[in-house]
Amino acid sequence: MIKLTENKFDTQRLHAGYDPKEHLNSPLPPIYQTAAFALGDTDEAEKVAEGSKEGFTYSRVANPTVRAFENRIAALDGGIDAVAVGSGMAAVSYALLSVAEGGGRIIAPTNLYGASIDAFQSIFPKFGIHVDFVDDINDFEAVKAAIKTDTKAVFVESVANPSTDIADIEQLATIAHQAGIPLIVDNTFPTPYLLRPFDFGADIDVYSSTKAINGHGNVVSGIIVDHGKFDWHNGRFPQFTENEFTLETEAGKPVILVARWCGGLYFPGSD
Ligand SMILES: *Cc1c(COP(=O)(O)O)cnc(C)c1O
After folding, report:
1. Is the omega angle on the peptide bond into residue 162 within 30 degrees of 0, that is, cis?
2. Is the minimum distance from the CB of 222 to ligand 1 under 6 angstroms?
3. φ/ψ (deg, to 5) at 55
4. pLDDT digits (tens, 9 = 90+) for 193-239
5. Is the dihedral of CA 215, 217, 219, 222 positive or negative?
6. Which atom of ligand 1 is nearest to 211's Cα?
7. Which among 199, 209, 229, 260 could bridge 213 via Cys, Cβ 3.0 to 4.6 Å?
8. What is the number of the ligand 1 atom nearest to the C-alpha of 90?
9. What is the pLDDT of residues 237-252, one digit of tens each?
10. pTM for the predicted model, two decimal places
11. Separation of 127 CA from ligand 1 center, angstroms?
12. CA nearest 186: which of 264, 102, 104, 94?
């Protein structure tokens, strides 16, 4: 995988996270339109399943086309990795349902994208997640006062859609980190071309890649990017540090599937 972090944005935009040599020298990422991948033989399958060898098994877990997209956006955004999902609302929901898994509170402004407001008001409570709204997210005293022991994240839009209000990411990240919680930023509106929230301390970025990142208006999609800096081991987020379940191969070797921060599953060593 080519990270090309030393290159300029326009070069990364075309090349980051994709190596033509791994794809029959195709300069553009081919569309791998397949659900599953042939693993050759059982020895090979075992290596991929236990994570000692990189490989694709099933497109819900990972797919080379989607992987190129994830790698590229992670590079452009300055994150360590990314997970692509089916829409921007899926990205918002995955990120927040994962951090507040099992119940908890999220702090968010009232001037969000309408579908996010709808989800926070009418769907999240059904999963035991309560959103504490603040009218002005840059009223730092109000944000501090809203933080409770079961608050799991501060969620903002860097540039709100449609009000274009701008969140002070640096101050909000400091306040969130003092409380041991992450700052999750919906950076759909500016895209990493105009603003990289990680440069100002954000922990997770979410995007509707239906919008400006896509640029073509021909696909609905979303992506979640991890800055890789937040300490998920601080006791508030056991879901990210506990093993969900363990499978064993016939030879009795454990194949551990662990919870990934986005709520998906991965085979250790696959990335
Ligand atoms: C459009 C949008 C979303 C939702 O994205 P979809 O791809 O339509 O699900 C979320 N946040 C912001 C800021 C948006 O503009």
Report:
1. yes
2. yes
3. 175, 165
4. 999 999 999 999 999 999 999 988 899 999 999 999 999 999 999 88
5. positive
6. 1
7. 209
8. 9
9. 988 887 665 556 666 6
10. 0.88
11. 21
12. 94
